[in-house]
């Protein structure tokens, strides 16, 4: 439903950081700490790399730090507002922080960039549903299915 994979396509490094199941919270924190340290070095050399902030936002999201997630995705959007994944990541952080109005705003920006993406419509429907706006939620869910008939909400 929400983005779980983030990739760096900068000049310095090509890798994929994916969401994995980790048994121990302390192991997860150690892993996230190492990943965060790894991703800070490209930013030191190239602070204009929006994708690095995107990845840091993903790491912060995995760690459950919504405030930091919002900070990183917002910075990525400040640098490059044309990336749908940045808006989706920001919306996810707002959603997890129960800031549904902000999540709706981010998802609407993502829809403007990718109007035929059923996942974004589904996520928007979930925001409306959690706000208690069931009419708008149903409209979004129907639109997701109309864009991709085999899409499961």
Order of helices and strands: EEHHHHHHH
Residue share in helices? 55-70%
- What's the overall average pLDDT, rounded? 77
Helical/strand content category: mainly alpha
**What topology, given as strand order, has the largest sheet?**
1-2
Characterize the main sheet: 2 strands, antiparallel
Determine the N-to-C terminus distance. 9 Å
**Overall number of strands:** 2
Low-confidence stretches: 1-30
Gyration radius, in Å: 16 Å
Oligomeric state of this protein: single chain
How many alpha or pi helices?
Answer: 7
The proportion of residues in beta strands is 5-15%
Shape: globular
In short:
With 153 residues, the chain is mainly alpha-helical.
Task: Give short descriptive properties of this protein.
disordered N terminus; two-stranded antiparallel ribbon; single chain; 2 strands; mainly alpha; globular; 153 residues
Report on the structure:
By secondary structure, the protein is mainly alpha-helical. It has helices at 25-45, 50-62, 66-79, 84-96, 100-113, 118-131, 134-147; strands at residues 5-9, 14-18. It is built from seven helices and two strands. Strands 1-2 form a two-stranded antiparallel sheet. It is globular.
Secondary structure layout plus pairing:
Elements: E1 5-9, E2 14-18, H1 25-45, H2 50-62, H3 66-79, H4 84-96, H5 100-113, H6 118-131, H7 134-147
Antiparallel strand pairs: 1-2
Helix pairs in contact: 1-2, 2-3, 2-4, 3-4, 4-5, 5-6, 6-7
């Amino acid at each position: 439903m929400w983005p779980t994979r983030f990739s760096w396509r900068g000049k310095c490094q090509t890798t994929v950081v994916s969401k994995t199941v980790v048994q121990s919270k302390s192991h997860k924190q150690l892993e996230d700490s190492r990943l965060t340290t790894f991703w800070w070095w490209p930013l030191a050399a190239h602070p204009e790399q929006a994708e690095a902030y995107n990845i840091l936002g993903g790491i912060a999201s995995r760690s459950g730090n919504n405030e930091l997630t919002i900070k990183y995705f917002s910075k990525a959007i400040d640098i490059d507002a044309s990336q749908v994944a940045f808006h989706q990541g920001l919306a996810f952080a707002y959603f997890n922080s129960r800031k549904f109005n902000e999540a709706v705003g981010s998802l609407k920006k993502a829809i403007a960039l990718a109007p035929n993406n059923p996942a974004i419509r589904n996520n928007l429907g979930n925001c409306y549903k959690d706000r208690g706006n069931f009419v708008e939620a149903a409209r979004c869910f129907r639109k997701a299915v109309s864009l991709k008939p085999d899409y499961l909400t």
